[in-house]
Amino acid sequence: MKDRAMHASSSVFVAGHRGLVGSAICRRLVAGGYKNLVLRTRAELDLTKRAAVWEFFAKQRPEYVVLAAAKVGGIHANDTYPADFISENLLIQSNVIDACFEFGVQRLLFLGSSCIYPKLCPQPIREEYLLTGPLEPTNRPYAIAKIAGIEQCWAYNRQYNTKFLAAMPTNLYGPGDNFDLHRSHVLPALLRKVATARATHSGHVEVWGTGTPRREFLYSEDLAEACVFLLEMAQDRFETLLDKDHAPLVNIGVGEDVTIRELAELICRVLDYQGELVFDSTQPDGTPRKLLDVSRMRALGWKPRIGLEEGIQRTYAAAKDSFVSAGM
Ligand code: GDP
Hints:
The chain is α/β, with parallel strands linked by helices. It has helices spanning about 20-30, 50-60, 75-80, 80-100, 140-160, 185-200, 220-230, 235-240, 260-270, 295-300, 310-325, and strands spanning about 10-15, 35-40, 65, 105-110, 165-170, 170-175, 205-210, 215, 215-220, 250, 260, 275-280, 290. The chain is globular, with a radius of gyration of 19 Å. Helix 2 runs parallel beside helix 4 (about 80-100), helix 6 packs across helix 9 and helix 6 crosses helix 11. It contains eleven helices and 13 strands. Guanosine-5'-diphosphate binds next to helix 3, helix 6 and strand 7. Guanosine-5'-diphosphate (GDP) binds next to helix 3, helix 6 and strand 7.
């Protein structure tokens, strides 16, 4: 039983199953015939509380864990609530990672994001660029928490031969995203702003920053595919990602990026909105470019399927009713 890839009857704890990432992973697991998902809402299990996490693991004994629970948000939220971003994430991940060791979890997938890499590192960003330069200040507290989690996975793997892997997706979007304009990332924010402008016959949409930063966008269901691909991977292949001389880290992205202006124009086209884009350069741009090098996943045989335009159409189709019920 020990050291085998995940299979249909394995017990799998998806932490954060109501979020953008966790919900997509659950849908994919259910579609793939997984029958033994262990899920807890925040009200049922507060992952910042160590005793509660211990009690849960002792009772449930999950064999596989996907750690998708985290405090996340866009550039404004990260900048406004830096203490929450570092403290909550450190607590959640150290409780869950320690518990995965303590209770003999066979594989852990620890999720973070591409903002762990230095602000000005060469592009596309290879996994080995981690900790080679200063971080982008607007999300440094979140990034440092995630880097600590990667280090913790690596340390456990070295000291105790655990199979803990950190998967770092690029900017994600999809159904169930956060569309609150103060907390959301750029893609859901612009989708909502353009939908509102169209519905209210406004002639313009406000876009933060200069529009020149470049970002790469991955559809949440593609990330879910990648995560299940990693969890189902044969043990010997999976272990190639856990070489003890390097951080156990794999980038998950599409390998192509667009400018924020191009993204905004594409959203206008998908929603058939003809108004003008107005750039508010008093808002921060954040890091100038964040394009992942995805050759490690490509070499293993995984690539995304949903292009940006199709992903925007699907996300909009899933969200538009909630925009209307929220009065835009
Ligand atoms: P980041 O990738 O960590 O910088 O986070 P975001 O997704 O929040 O922002 C990405 C880029 O989009 C930044 O340059 C923002 O200034 C820009 N942007 C443009 N309009 C918006 C908006 O309405 N909301 C957000 N969150 N970002 C926006």
